[in-house]
Amino acid sequence: MSNQFSYGDIIYHDIVPINLDTMGTDAIQANSWINMAETVQKIPVHLSEFKHVCRFMPIVFSPVGKPIPIAITGLTPGKNPFIINGQWKRNTYIPAAIRQYPFLLAQTDEDNKRVVYVDQSMLNKEHENRLFRDDGTKTPFFENAIEQCTVYDQHVHKTHSVIDVIDEIGLFTETQMDIETPDGTHKRTGSFKVIDVKKYAALSDEQILLLHQSQALWAIHAHIISMDNLPSIAQTLQ
């Protein structure tokens, strides 16, 4: 893995493994994710976040390949309405994929180990949060970033297994939404997947039990609840 990498709308412009020899005096600005997040509208989220995300954003699923849960911040291209005056909107949830930027835990090409990468474009020797001390040991800032990425990675793997259960039962359906804008006109969204509520209502007791045991049942409920946020998101459309 190297160079540009996209994760939802989150773009790592120059992602490389962190290396003491070349980054020993490099540092990162606090809350460096703010500028990146200004244009982000599709944010991958994991299962443990659903209970928080569903209060503020619709949770949908990617339409191509394995369904990936995505939080939608807005519908105006290139604009994230949760960023107001250079800050994330107060008293709302910031998804973990945003908070871990510019770091990312990923697999190396050589030996399949998972190591921490960084968007090299965010490094600057003048910033306040160094990765390493003068003696080469990791700073508390970097140790916290490693822990955050590790926990996030674990949650993502758990999410994939739960989504697989939902997919195998056949509950996903692809759709688009007709959105009424503040000026009264209508626009169609791009395609995404949602839970088919009619199929969900027709599930057998055995299937409901399977969803419950896999922790998929409450994820489905959170997704359905989250879709009530779509009208408020539509009001930000320009």
Q: In terms of structural class, how would the helical and strand content be classed? A: alpha+beta
Domain count, please report it.
Answer: 1
In percent, how much strand structure appears in the residues? 15-25%
- Share in helix: 25-40%
What's the helix-strand series?
A: EEHEHEHEEEEHEEEEHEEEEHHHH
Count of individual beta strands: 16
Rg, nearest Å: 20 Å
Which stretches are poorly predicted, pLDDT < 50 over at least 5 residues?
A: none
Strand order of the largest sheet: 1-2-10-9
Termini separation: 36 Å
Assign an overall shape.
globular
Number of distinct helices: 9
Quick structural gist:
This protein is an alpha+beta fold. It is built from nine helices and 16 strands.
Describe the structure.
The protein has one domain (3-234). The protein is an alpha+beta fold and 238 residues long. The strands form 6 sheets. It has a 4-stranded antiparallel β-sheet. Strands 11-3-12 form a 3-stranded antiparallel β-sheet, with no helix packed on it. Helices cover 32% and strands 24% of the residues. It has helices at residues 20-23, 33-37, 50-53, 96-99, 140-169, 197-201, 205-213, 216-226, 230-234; strands at residues 3-7, 10-17, 27-28, 42-44, 59-61, 69-72, 83-84, 87-88, 103-107, 114-119, 123-124, 129-130, 172-175, 178-180, 186-188, 192-195. The mean pLDDT is 91. The protein contains 9 helices and 16 strands.
